[in-house]
Amino acid sequence: MTHPPAPAPRRHRRAVGQLLLGLVPVLLVGLGLLLALALRLPDVQAPLSAARETTTATVTATGAAPGGRGLDVAFTDAGGTEREGRIELDRPLEVPVDAELTVRYDPDLPARGAVPVFTDGDAAHAAVGDVVFGLVAIVLVLLVVGVLTLARLLGRPRLRTRPTTTVPATHVVVRQGLLVRSFLELDTSAGRRWLPVHWAPELDRLAPGTPVTVHGDPARARLVLPVVGGAEVWPSGRLRSREPRGEVRQAPVDPDAAEVGLGRQARADGVLPFLAPFLGLLWAYVDGSGPRGFLVATALLAAVLFWVPQWLGSDPRATRSS
């Protein structure tokens, strides 16, 4: 008498949805900021592009407008005409009168009054540097977030091919500050192991010490794929031989636990992005990039701070009930 083959474990579609829930805002915000900065770059580059002539200027006065950051200079243009110019520094600096600076200027400007001139490290160069740095930083963030998310989406299904073993498992939740994560506590031949996982309702139905099937060897491997209640549970990190830091407690068992929508997931994880304005303000102060730097940093940090708990596999039910 032959027995029908056991049904394949259900795919962990919720883990895929949670990862995409974190990725999409980062992509939208990042691409929007890239577009805004790319459109701004020609404007900040225009004065420097027009300054085609280079000469040596002598400082005649300091502390001029705007805000004491202006330097008045005198120079001789390419046609031999004595002219006056003003350099706007990025911040007030002590520059001695009669100091000589290499400057650039626009030869097409009329020789009446002080014309804008530019030197390395002035406000115009700093503005271009801020925009270029912003473009590079955003591209790096998009690459890191995209590669990490894509690697998990493509890598976790490959764990299905590993040999299976059966070990007792207990569902625990770990609180670390504002973040609450689900872990499976596995009793292996090499001792107890803790595996962070993306939440699934099958975890809340799991009685402590219930044997579960695991793809991979939890005693030796760094990544395994548990099957709980006939459903795959994707790991959100590597196996640990030490108990996770933070407040560790056994999750309550709920035999009737149902799926939790991604809307509730978003509300549960919507606290971390509120830290973004404070971090953005700190960045603008340290970098000296001003209000624009604050807005760019805040928007990008808010998206990344929302992505982080999705990547780490935050537990919406535990977050709501703790």
First-last Cα distance? 51 Å
Please state the overall shape, judged from the principal axes of the Cα atoms: rod-shaped
Count up the helices: 7
Average pLDDT, all residues: 92
| Structural domain tally | 2
Structural class: alpha+beta
- Seen as an oligomer or otherwise, the chain set is single chain
Instruction: Using the CA coordinates, give the radius of gyration.
Output: 29 Å
Strand content: 25-35%
Which series of helices and strands comes N to C? HEEEEEHEEEHEEEEHHHH
Number of strands: 12
Fraction of residues in helices?
25-40%
Largest sheet, if any?
Answer: 7 strands, antiparallel
Poorly predicted regions are none
Please describe the topology of this protein.
Elements: H1 13-50, E1 53-64, E2 70-76, E3 82-88, E4 100-105, E5 114-118, H2 123-155, E6 164-176, E7 179-188, E8 191-197, H3 201-205, E9 210-215, E10 225-228, E11 231-232, E12 247-250, H4 262-268, H5 276-287, H6 290-312, H7 316-321
Parallel strand pairs: 3-5
Antiparallel strand pairs: 1-2, 1-4, 2-3, 4-5, 6-7, 6-9, 6-12, 7-8, 9-10, 10-11
Helix pairs in contact: 1-2, 1-6, 2-6, 5-6
Keywords:
five-stranded mixed beta barrel; 322 residues; OB fold (Dihydrolipoamide Acetyltransferase, E2P); seven-stranded antiparallel beta sheet; rod-shaped; alpha+beta
